[in-house]
């Protein structure tokens, strides 16, 4: 992927929620680049900040209580965090589009599919109603829906979950955005439908050259779809790299734990190994490695200092002192002990 | 849908029957009798008995009730005991006055109430939200007679801006065609009178609108708050839609059903006679017409008047139920 131009650059993004119980840093200084035409996965458990990241990019963090408190999101030479609402509206749906987890509730139940499909076109393009409708119908065909003309006049409750998610995808892509953010697009669907939707997203990514930011908690989804993946934990990126690389050779203990807790069909008898402990509440750990309390390789430095992202291979980084060149020797010893 | 409406109309029959029976019995439970009221305190027993016989009041109650029902089925609302003219003819001008006032008041209540509720929900916990909700609380609690009298005093007497009683300028009376003066004056092209009629509507209209307005505002706010958190609102925003349209198109349509219910119920109450408001503002409406008839023990007027009001009430509620399915395609009758 490196070599292709960047379409989106997130630098040191911080998004916090100002609640009665204090300030909760849901996203705590994350940086990544999204390249043209790639599918980048963001994976992590619930509450790790992956959804807040995507909403921050869209400028849709519920505010109050949420607020972007630092960093920048660069798109087309502009910092999206600095745009006025009016300018941001032109970006949403037109340059960056989003699909959500719940196809059941993400479509407005009282408007026809046609009216919801053409809405973004009527906002962002000069197409008339008739042309917008034709364009919307083409898009619905492209996502593999049957009897498109009828569906245009139907309401969401008349469609199945899988069909609705196809409609959501078509709706997001109808203005041909450069970036598609998909927040858990398959989580609410049956497994067979999941596979279809993922295949569809991959096909559209290749065909329309739209960069996709795929947010999921499911490593299987990442393995099937993404080229690169970012692993998030407690508001931070803990590992970033090519999917094949990370699956074969995870560099962060958390990633390793995640992979071990996924069932592998090749070894039937093997018991799954869950990661001990729970995800810390965002903001609960202010010093040291966020994962230290649950980490089997923990040593003194982990709770004393904040680890950085250390490069292990070209394009592969991990936020772990074990990958710090200075710690190489200590690392070996720890591994022997465990 | 037509089948559903037909079914609902059939269901109305027992409701209205029961209602006529209750009203029939209650009015007769009030001490005093129409013949005595008409003839006065000094009348002889024989004269009263003769008049009773003439009015058919000497018959047993079930005969009278049966007769009343038969007349209703024939579309005859009976005759006023006092004026000897058909209730149907007498009733309409009063009903028209009430409809005009109620519709005017409801328009004010809906426009202000719905918008205040939407803006309060949109900017939840803002100064607007707090102010609007405090006003709404005051609105539902303030006694109408006090509000009406204050309105008359401030805008009618002190500032001399608006008329305080009646529905027209008595020196320049409206020639009634439909009985709805706003329409009558427009048909006749009498714009001077049209202005007068509107001016007469303002004070009683606002007094009458206050409670429904407050209830509608509170209902709209709570319904909107729920809808604004929906996923599809976020979807609409993610398309780049203007917040105004997200709120007024996507969210409002989803939030409007409970509000419609409240509007329907309140409209029924307003039409049922805002006796207090009509009395304070000298408004010749149905509430006062029935109230006066009770004083005269004018049984047919009370019975038929209340029947008509009840009929309108249930028809409005039927209309609201039909509107649900227009707003929400998931609601299907049949």
Automatic annotation (TrEMBL), chain A:
GO term, biological process aspect, one: peptide transport
ATP-binding is among the record's keywords: yes
Domain of life: Bacteria
Limits of the ABC transporter domain: 8-259
UniProt-recorded Gene Ontology molecular function terms: ATP binding; ATP hydrolysis activity
Cellular component annotations (GO), alphabetically ordered: plasma membrane
Keywords tagged on the record: ATP-binding, Cell membrane, Membrane, Nucleotide-binding, Transport
Mode of membrane association: Peripheral membrane protein
Keyword Flavoprotein set for record: no
CDD domains: ABC_NikE_OppD_transporters
InterPro entries in alphabetical order: AAA+_ATPase, ABC_Ni/Peptide_Import, ABC_transporter-like_ATP-bd, ABC_transporter-like_CS, Oligopep_ABC_C, P-loop_NTPase
Localization in the cell: Cell membrane
Chief location category: membrane
Family: Belongs to the ABC transporter superfamily.
Protein name: Peptide/nickel transport system ATP-binding protein
Automatic annotation (TrEMBL), chain B:
Family to which the UniProt record says this protein belongs: Belongs to the binding-protein-dependent transport system permease family.
Residues passing through the membrane, by range: 12-30, 91-118, 130-155, 201-220, 255-281, 301-324
Membrane topology designation: Multi-pass membrane protein
Protein name: Peptide/nickel transport system permease protein
Gene3D superfamilies in the cross-refs: MetI-like
One Pfam family here: BPD_transp_1
The entry's keywords: Cell membrane, Membrane, Transmembrane, Transmembrane helix, Transport
Gene Ontology terms: biological process: transmembrane transport
Record carries keyword Ubl conjugation: no
UniProt keyword Ribonucleoprotein, yes or no: no
Organism: Edaphobacillus lindanitolerans
């Amino acid at each position: 992927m490196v070599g292709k131009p960047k379409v989106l650059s997130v630098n040191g993004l911080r998004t916090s929620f100002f609640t009665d119980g204090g300030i909760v840093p849901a996203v705590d200084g994350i940086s990544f680049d999204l390249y043209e035409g790639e599918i980048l996965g963001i994976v992590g458990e619930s509450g790790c900040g992956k959804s807040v990241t995507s909403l921050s990019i869209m400028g849709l963090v519920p505010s109050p209580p949420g607020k972007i408190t630092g960093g920048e999101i660069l798109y087309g030479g502009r910092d999206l965090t600095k745009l006025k609402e009016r300018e941001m509206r032109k970006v949403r749906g037109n340059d960056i589009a989003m699909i959500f987890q719940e196809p059941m509730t993400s479509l407005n139940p009282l408007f026809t599919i046609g009216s919801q499909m053409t809405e973004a076109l009527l906002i962002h393009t000069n197409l008339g109603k008739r042309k917008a409708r034709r364009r919307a119908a083409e898009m619905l065909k492209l996502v593999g829906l049957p009897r498109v003309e009828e569906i245009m006049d139907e309401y969401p409750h008349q469609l199945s979950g899988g069909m609705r998610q196809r409609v959501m995808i078509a709706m997001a892509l109808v203005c041909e955005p450069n970036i598609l953010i998909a927040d858990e697009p398959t989580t609410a669907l049956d497994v067979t439908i999941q596979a279809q939707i993922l295949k569809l997203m991959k096909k559209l990514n290749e065909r329309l050259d739209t960069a996709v930011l795929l947010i999921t908690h499911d490593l299987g989804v990442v393995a099937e779809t993404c080229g690169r993946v970012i692993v998030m934990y407690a508001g931070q990126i803990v590992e970033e790299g090519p999917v094949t690389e990370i699956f074969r050779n995870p560099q962060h203990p958390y990633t390793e734990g995640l992979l071990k807790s996924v069932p592998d069909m090749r070894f039937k008898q093997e018991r799954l190994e869950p990661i001990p402990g729970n995800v810390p509440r965002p903001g609960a750990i202010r010093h040291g490695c966020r994962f230290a309390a649950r980490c089997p390789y923990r040593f003194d430095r982990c709770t004393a200092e904040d680890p950085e992202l250390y490069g292990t291979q070209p394009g592969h980084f991990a936020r772990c002192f074990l990958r710090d060149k200075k710690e190489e020797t200590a690392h070996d010893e720890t591994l022997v002990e465990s | 849908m037509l089948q559903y409406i037909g079914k609902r109309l059939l269901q109305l029959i027992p409701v209205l029957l029961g209602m006529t029976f209750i009203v029939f019995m209650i009015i007769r439970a009030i001490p005093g009798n129409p013949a005595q009221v008409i003839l006065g305190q000094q009348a002889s027993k024989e004269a009263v008995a003769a008049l009773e016989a003439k009015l058919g009041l000497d018959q047993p109650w079930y005969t009278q009730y049966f007769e009343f029902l038969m007349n209703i089925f024939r579309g005859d609302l009976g005759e006023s005991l006092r004026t000897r003219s058909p209730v149907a003819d007498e009733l309409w001008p009063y009903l028209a006055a009430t409809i005009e006032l109620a519709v005017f008041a409801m328009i004010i209540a809906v426009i202000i109430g719905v918008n205040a509720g939407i803006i309060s929900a949109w900017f939840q916990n803002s100064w607007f939200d707090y102010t609007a909700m405090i006003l709404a609380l005051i609105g539902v609690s303030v006694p109408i007679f006090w509000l009406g009298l204050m309105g008359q005093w401030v805008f009618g007497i002190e500032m001399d801006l608006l008329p305080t009683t009646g529905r027209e300028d008595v020196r320049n009376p409206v020639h009634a065609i439909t009985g709805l003066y706003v329409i009558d004056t427009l048909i006749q092209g009498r714009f001077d009178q049209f202005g007068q009629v509107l001016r007469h509507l303002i004070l009683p209209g606002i007094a009458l609108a206050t409670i429904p307005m407050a209830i509608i505002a509170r209902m709209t706010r709570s319904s909107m708050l729920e809808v604004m958190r929906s996923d599809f609102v976020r979807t609409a925003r993610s398309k780049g839609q203007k917040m105004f349209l997200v709120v007024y198109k996507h969210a409002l349509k989803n939030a409007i059903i409970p509000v419609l219910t409240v509007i329907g119920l309140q409209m029924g109450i307003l039409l049922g006679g805002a006796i207090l408001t009509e009395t304070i503002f000298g408004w010749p409406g149905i509430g006062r017409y029935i109230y006066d008839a009770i004083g005269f023990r004018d049984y047919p007027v009370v019975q038929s008047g209340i029947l008509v009001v009840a009929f309108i009430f249930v028809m409005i509620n039927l209309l609201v139920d039909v509107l649900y399915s227009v707003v929400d395609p998931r609601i299907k009758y049949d």
